[in-house]
Amino acid sequence: MKRVGFVLVSAVAMLVIFTIAMAQLETRSAKHLLRVISGELVRGYFGSGVEGMYAWTGDKPLFAVSSSGEVNGPIRSGKVMFFDGLLADNPIHEFSAPKEGEVFGRTLSGGGDWNGDGIPDLAVGAPGDRESAGKVYLYFGGANIGSTVNGELSAKEVGDQFGTAISLHHDLNGDGLADLVVGAPKSAKAGATAGRAYIWLGKKDGTPAASPDIEIKLGTTNDLFGTAIATGDVTGDGHADLVIGSPHHNLGEKLPGSIFVIHGGPEANLASVKKIISGESSGFQDEFGYAVAIVNDMNDDGASEIVVGAPKVLRDGKQIGKAYLYYGGAAMASEPSRTFWGTDEAGGFGEAVFALGDLNRDGKGDWAVQASSAAGSRGTVYFYYGGWEKDFYQFNGEMLSDQLGNAVVALGDVEGNESVQVLVGARWNDTEAENAGRIYILSFD
Fold this sequence. Notes:
Blueprint: H1 2-29, E1 33-38, E2 46-54, E3 62-67, E4 79-83, E5 93-96, E6 107-110, E7 122-126, E8 135-139, E9 151-153, E10 165-167, E11 180-184, E12 196-200, E13 214-216, E14 228-232, E15 241-246, E16 258-262, E17 275-278, E18 291-295, E19 305-310, E20 314-315, E21 318-319, E22 322-326, E23 338-341, E24 349-355, E25 367-371, H2 374-377, E26 380-384, E27 393-396, E28 408-412, E29 420-426, E30 438-444
């Protein structure tokens, strides 16, 4: 009986300690949490994509959220919704996929003005499944955004996952119009899953042609070229550049992965690579380049920086994942300026990386890294201030298998109170229904 009593007391003590620890964890996780907005449909995947505060309708700023599994008839389709403020419970404008079964809204990118009318435009990725050729739909901003498809783009190659990565943020060729870049990482035009990327250059008062203006043919067999795409000025010359991830780029037996840096500007050749930076080959496939972001200048040299995710890097034989920071400049080094490790084995640290502007107003770019399977598969987003050597905040998912952080975007100071709001997506969240999805609004002072 004494032994039983000891076990019971020990169990109670451990339960108390565990409860206190969990309470502390929850308090820390909710430190910056302002509110949540939940999806309602079973397998609706609300929060698949998020995009920032822009005057999409030509009026006041709105943020956009996609739900890639919304029901539209008998087959699951998708939807894009626009919200006018942090306290809004319902969207003030929305539109659904033009066709069913394409995983419409799996990716979102916008804010750039593709057609030169002064209103930001939106690109919606619909990468489809193994049996379909992916698509990207381009919508021009205006009062009725979404009522008309202004561009239905595809490489017309079954299973290429065209639209897995998209960017409609910057002007790459210096003509004053935003350009649309699309990745198709499983394109087989140059060998199985070689991958390919495409550019539709902005056109004043026009619509995109069926074929791209530029086809980037740098992937070879198994490279998965086009898995990740980012744009921004990494050379400091005043022109936006292009960085493309190729996480299985073959440089020998271990397939470390690489990123391809393509310089932009009026005289630039956007189909030609200027620099290739490769992973360190810690194991068979580090997947360096699985994610990439271009972050605002951190070291005051006038050039933006590159952050690269490699979710399968090994540490002491364990798959921990790693993020790499490269300072930009005219002569960018092939070695990272800093590196950052994940914390959980097989946590997926580096599966996504995000540029977040300047959260703490110190003039340096800030950023975040997703670890989709960390915290018991709840998922964790690690936030970093520019110039810091470690994360300053970790935000964890609520439920098992949430895989928090599939999409993250900074909204800016929405409320005018000198704080910056950030949206975080958890498209697998089950709070309202199975995989209904949820977004979190965080506030950083």
